[in-house]
Specification:
Helix content: 25-40%
Shape: rod-shaped
Largest sheet: 4 strands, mixed
Order of helices and strands: HEEEEEEEE
Keywords: Signal
Number of helices: 1
Length: 93
């Protein structure tokens, strides 16, 4: 009888520790996934942030090329950065 109780106790403890590890790992992975369809344009930092294929992408909106010419990002994921009426675009000034 003691052996049966000992085996049951070991099985229960093993199951609880396994379940605890599974929930911790799956919760952390899901928390890192990017699912928003919003595009955040930060004018002060000159960056635009959006999600693509579950990954968060940050791009510069203005800069200078190798040849010295200035460039400006005009469109991200089919949305113009100058269309302030678009509900997907959030502009931070």
């Amino acid at each position: 009888m003691k052996k049966v109780l000992l085996v049951l106790l070991i099985l229960v403890m093993g199951t609880l520790s396994f379940a605890k590890g599974k929930t911790r790992k799956s919760g952390g992975h899901k928390a890192k996934a990017c699912t928003s369809d919003k595009i955040i344009h930060d004018v002060n930092k000159e960056t635009v942030t959006y999600c693509k294929n579950g990954k968060k992408i940050v791009e510069r909106t203005e800069g200078t090329g190798i040849d010295g010419d200035d460039w400006q990002l005009e469109e991200v994921d089919g949305v113009s950065l100058f269309d302030e009426s678009n509900p997907r675009l959030i502009i931070i000034r």
